[in-house]
Amino acid sequence: MSQSSQFDRGAIWRCSRVFCAISIVCLFGTGCSIFGEEKDMEAEPLELQAIDETLDVRQLWSESVGAGTESLRVALNPSGDGNRVYAASYDGNVGAFNPENGQRIWVTELDLTLSAGPGIGDGLVVVAGYDGDLIALNARDGQELWRTRIGAESLAKPAIDDDRVIVYTIDGRLRVYSAFDGRQLWVLEQSVPALTQRGSAAPMVVGNTIITGFDNGRLLAVDLDDGILEWEAVLTPPSGRSDLERLADIDGSLAVVGQDIYAAGFNGRLASLAVESGQVLWARDISSPTGVSVDWNNIYTVGDGGEVIAVLRRNGDDVWRQESLLRREPTPPVPFSTAVVVGDFEGYVHFFNNFDGRPVARERVGGSMISGPPLVMGDKLFVQSENGTLAAFAVRIPIRTED
């Protein structure tokens, strides 16, 4: 078994980043005793403070998708097609829900443990299993259409485009399958460092090009038809002597607007790149484990310690920084209404003003970690916690009356 395979199944893959951060401080720091005699208070998550809730956020409904995990950071996050919301649970349930009231349209119980999905597109709902299975269901009624072995765990939501299913697995392989029968069409492999974070960047399709990040700090553009490499950019060059210092994963969300790609890597940079060439247009020394999201003006990301950051899309200049969630494991930020939304490790959903970063509302989902990005569909926000709870929210806009 290779060194990277040992890490795939080892304890580091299974722990949450909170546990990893505390362990690293204890092993390498000077203020923490492994016997618990001293306590490093700086490793503790920041306590939440009372806020003035100026945004009227209402929970519309909450439903259980199925049994969840104990903070394993699986990539099970809701997806939507405009008419339905799709969600999957760790214990193998996949369901379609009415976004207005949470009513279950269909639920399919798969006899396996799930780790990623659902991806949706072309009438399919696709999920990945913990032990290396890829399953496609009919989006209309949940009927299983095909199932194939992919040989490795996936921690990235599958992408579906042009009758192809794109999957990235933790062994550093980008795999493409036929959406008709699950037949593998091609595979591209990158080297995997000995030590990586738990998580993977979900592939994105732009035109006929797949764009995705790898654990070696590289961002690749690959032809969807044949897997031929179009360009690669070293977003986060590994540096340092130890495996820990050389962590350079691109694990978080990517964003594309027009001909610009926005991406961020751990221990590295946040950057804007040209879609057609991979040329770096601008870059900032901002390390992020969560990746990025964008609106018309800003890019939103989360720093290593949990700082929520907004920078300008055009040049990367700071707009605001919010430190109220330090060490609370914030999810990738998502723009919604006039706010930016992130979840945390206790199931809280935080709403920050997108203009200046002020906290404007706070809700809670399921009392368990929220590890993936919320979904925005129309005027609604959908959040899934790791215990399998799916909840929908909306912002109530006051009706102005004429005097």
Give a verbal description of the structure.
The chain has 403 residues and is mostly beta strands. It has a domain at 1-44. Helix content is 6%, strand content 41%. It has helices spanning 3-9, 11-14, 17-28; strands at residues 57-64, 75-76, 79-80, 85-88, 93-97, 104-109, 114-121, 124-129, 133-138, 144-149, 159-161, 164-169, 173-178, 184-189, 204-206, 209-213, 218-223, 229-234, 255-257, 260-264, 270-274, 280-284, 292-294, 298-302, 308-312, 318-322, 334-336, 339-343, 348-353, 359-364, 375-377, 380-384, 389-395. Mean pLDDT is 85; it is low at 1-39.
List keywords for this structure.
403 residues; 33 strands; single chain; five-stranded mixed beta sheet; mainly beta; four-stranded antiparallel beta sheet; disordered N terminus
Task: Draw up the topology in text.
Blueprint: H1 3-9, H2 11-14, H3 17-28, E1 57-64, E2 75-76, E3 79-80, E4 85-88, E5 93-97, E6 104-109, E7 114-121, E8 124-129, E9 133-138, E10 144-149, E11 159-161, E12 164-169, E13 173-178, E14 184-189, E15 204-206, E16 209-213, E17 218-223, E18 229-234, E19 255-257, E20 260-264, E21 270-274, E22 280-284, E23 292-294, E24 298-302, E25 308-312, E26 318-322, E27 334-336, E28 339-343, E29 348-353, E30 359-364, E31 375-377, E32 380-384, E33 389-395
Parallel strand pairs: 2-7
Antiparallel strand pairs: 1-33, 3-4, 4-5, 5-6, 7-8, 8-9, 9-10, 11-12, 12-13, 13-14, 15-16, 16-17, 17-18, 19-20, 20-21, 21-22, 23-24, 24-25, 25-26, 27-28, 28-29, 29-30, 31-32, 32-33
